[in-house]
Write a structure and sequence with these properties.
Layout: H1 2-9, E1 14-18, E2 23-27, E3 67-71, H2 82-97
Antiparallel strand pairs: 1-2, 1-3
Length: about 100
């Protein structure tokens, strides 16, 4: 259900799930200036240019093993729009707190 929701939410882009850590990673351009802190969005961390991240092999698109692409890239450089990621985070936070998330 989550994967279906993400495919409807995003207009392209790439994201993968780490099934061991129960985390989702949304790939955005390296030039993205993330303005939210842990105080604004607790539990959300922006990994910028000085971070390295292991990603699943491109053919892993089903939820099994350590991780998989829940939003596989359609082509090289197909990244999520930062504003869509931000809106998703606020939507999720509002939904969890019972606030109208529309």
């Amino acid at each position: 259900m989550v994967d279906d929701f993400l495919r409807q939410w995003f207009d392209g882009g790439a994201a993968f799930a780490d099934l061991h850590a129960l985390l989702y990673y949304f790939l955005v351009p390296s030039s993205t200036a993330w303005k939210w802190t842990d105080r604004h969005l607790p539990g959300v961390e922006y990994l910028g240019r000085d971070h390295y991240l292991g990603v699943p092999a491109v053919h892993l698109t089903e939820p099994q093993g350590r991780g998989y692409w829940c939003l596989p890239m359609d082509s090289a450089g197909d990244l999520c729009y930062p504003d869509e990621v931000e809106k998703l985070l606020h939507h999720g936070r509002a939904t969890r707190s019972g606030v109208n998330a529309q």
